[in-house]
## 1
Amino acid sequence: MKKLSVFIYFILLSCSKDITVDESRSALEFTLSVSSYEGGTVNYDNSTDGVFSDGEIVNISAVANENHYFIGWSNGSRENPIKITVNSNTFITAKFINKQDLITRFEQIVIGNGDNGPVYTLKWRQMNLFLDGSLTSEFKEELGLFVRELNFLLNNDQDFSINQVTELSDSDVHMMRTDSHTFKGVYSEFEDIPLENYYGYALWWFNDFGNIESGKVFINSQSVSSNVVIRWAIRHELGHILGLKHTTEESSIMHPNHRPGVNDVFSDLDKEALRFLHDERMNVFSNTDESREVLEGILGINNTNKAKNKPNTSFESKTKPGGIIYACGK
């Protein structure tokens, strides 16, 4: 009888232990850290000092200051307010940019000055890109990343898409990573251009409807070899094919020269300028004043002053009938 009582006591203890484990699993907690860039604030219920139960949903709102514009969250979402399901330690930041800086960047890289491209807005609808030449795995991977990045960035334009195709006959943009001699053998219009002196060259044409419809891109295989230069060259040259012009602003991907660590990729201002070019409210063939009026309306700026100065440029470019050709240096 004594042995039996001991055995029962042991069973009771083991059952009690199992219940404790189950309770601890339902009490998991995680930390949610929310911050913002300069130019705005974030609002959410933080009565628990950033600690939330597993699976708890938190609504977070980004509030821009008067002179700034909300451009999205650090996780890539542009939804505002955003719902975050807390199931791990989470960090998220609201991003803002200065409205006037955005308008300036738009006018720098979208509106030309005659020599630096047409003095109005032009844009693609759909782009089919064919890549060939001396290709490395790094180059192909970086191009694939940018194609996905661009489709995600311009999801505000339901008509736009960029796709890689496997046949030249299916393309409207031909990008070749090769030497200057080989490229000139394919495209005689570049015969008198010292391509070997540049990282790349871009040539594109637009039609009477204001849509860019074709392009040719030279990438110098002799000088574009390191990952950081590959990253810049792809984005810069395709930036031209997308209708963007050169700018003297060194922080922009569209500066004619690569500045390592400064303009390796599209900046937030570059991205937003491109998105506004593809906004449904922005018409093709809009000049500086017309595009500024649209931008100010979208941004909520009550400003009747029109842009008087056109962007200054100091690089090589020239117009062709229905098209633009750009030299992009080192």
## 2
Amino acid sequence: MNVKLDSLIEKIKSDGVDAAKKQADKILADAKKTADAIVKEANAEADKARKKAEADAEAYRKNAETAIKQAARDTVLVMKEKIGEMFEQALMEDISKTLDKDLLQKIILKLAGAWAGEGDLEVLVNEKDAEALQAQLKRSLSTNLKGSLDLRIDKKIEHGFRIGKKGENLYYDFTDESILEALRIFLNPKLAELLK
């Protein structure tokens, strides 16, 4: 009976060990399956995060390129504008220097002589030029002009003058600003071409 008992104990141990081994194998298989699923999900998430990071980096690169191109265009436009302003300022300075009292007197005398006999004339100049021209024009025109010439001060004029028939409020404009405006029509296309 002892042998039967030993054999029965041995069988129970063997069946228990087999069952435990099967149970352990099943737990291991389930754990491996779960681990594989977790690894697969983690890889999918990592891949998704990598693709999103690449897409974000590409979008950032494109935005940066667009911003750089826009900044370059803006810089070119500002530079063109500044160069144009500098050119106009230099031109205005040259015009202002050229429109000295001697040239003003010559131009006014020519125009007054051309309009001799057509009535009274009015010349608008700045205060500084009015003082310098007053006596000279009166002397020069007294023999050539049949009518009067009024020399009036216009504080809006920096250099040059406006001339017209008295009382008509219609003047021919020979101020530095109007001369610059006339030159601008011809010079701006050339300047724009040079800046290209």
## 3
Amino acid sequence: MTKDNNYACRTALIIGGCRGIGRAIAIRLAKDGFDIIATARNSGTHSENLNNEICACGRKFTLLTFDVRDRDATAAAFAPLTENPPDVVVYNSGIAKDNLFVFMTPEEWDDVMDTNIDGFYHTVQPLIFGMMARKSGRIIIISSASGQTGQAGQVNYSASKAALIGAAKALAREIGKKGILVNVVAPGFIATEMTEHIPTDKVLPLIPLNRAGAPEEVAGAVSFLCGPDSSYIHGQVIPVNGGLVI
């Protein structure tokens, strides 16, 4: 059976899907045979390029533009999806505003929590009832190695990513009996725009594989969790970190 037959007429929603890891996930799932719905704050070059790449894979592409921190705007954008939710939901929206905790401003704390945690509630929660009624679905949450072990200068980010892991494990216990699989992918140091400012000479010695990861390597783990070979994996954290956290 080909991948296209496995995933015929199936849809994947990638929340935060037009750049970096989210973009790589969207392209990989399109190659797997999924039609793609991606969200972003605004349309622009990144979304246009993604549209072209998804269409080149022979799949449909839909862009939803809103800020995940805005509950009302999210609800309006997701209204068409609540009764017929996508088969796969990937929560990848997230920001980092690093600072030592002693100097961390209220804005740096709130912005990270509002996006990384509140955004998860605003986007994923409205889709749960429809997935439960259908008795099928996959939810993959993109956390971070920082949420597994903590990183100095990232108290806000580490707290938010650890919270996502806790939320995923609790949600897995709630809805597993309805045929919905919930798992987490926890990337380490991945070469994206978010990590461009991080000095590699400081980070690479901490990674046994001695290199940064590629977004496509994270996308590969997500692809596995969306496919038939992961049907008994539930409530788990899949690290993609080159050995940074063991």
